[in-house]
Write a structure and sequence with these properties.
globular, single chain, about 70 residues, alpha+beta, about 15% strand, 3 strands
Amino acid sequence: RRLRDLAQVYKRTDDGTVTIPLTQEELAEMAGTSRATVNKILREEAARGTVELRRGRTIVTDLELLAQRAR
């Protein structure tokens, strides 16, 4: 849910993606969980195609599907 909320704060690019320039550690702090938990969830979402993981940032590639999963 936190990732969905952040994706709405950052600007979408022309191709519809949103880059969130935060580390997994920072995301974990915001969500009140561990980095390991964030990493697990992000990897699961990457396998579903909703995000791409990059060093120090997460790229949301399918905000609509991510939002549906966050409900």
